[in-house]
Write a structure and sequence with these properties.
2 domains; mainly alpha
């Protein structure tokens, strides 16, 4: 028995992660040489990605947050490839405030 998990970004709240599901299936198919039509999952993943992108584009705070997270991720990958240890990321006060607000919303649910 094996369990697989796809990590969702905290800014994307959804009941079913079709994008993550598709990625896990692609990895499994690649590892085990499986062949199956993924068109239905790909369609749902594309629709979900478009919905998330549209929601992000309506919120400047989320756009700023995602840009900073992507930049930090890229910098971390670069440090790791150079054999340098991780450093604690520094987020702007606006991003920290936004994350605090998200945390408050999640704790209320």
């Amino acid at each position: 028995m094996m369990g697989l998990m796809a990590h969702l970004p905290q800014y994307a709240q959804m009941e079913v992660d079709h994008v993550g599901r598709l990625r896990i299936l692609e990895i499994l198919f690649s590892l085990y040489g499986l062949d199956m039509n993924l068109e239905r999952v790909q369609t749902r993943a594309r629709q979900q990605h478009d919905e998330i992108s549209a929601a992000m584009n309506r919120s400047p705070e989320v756009i700023t947050l995602v840009e900073q997270l992507e930049k930090q991720y890229d910098e971390r990958l670069k440090r790791m490839s150079e054999g340098r240890p991780d450093e604690d990321p520094e987020l702007s006060p606006n991003v920290l405030d936004f994350l605090d607000q998200l945390g408050e919303q999640f704790s209320q649910h």
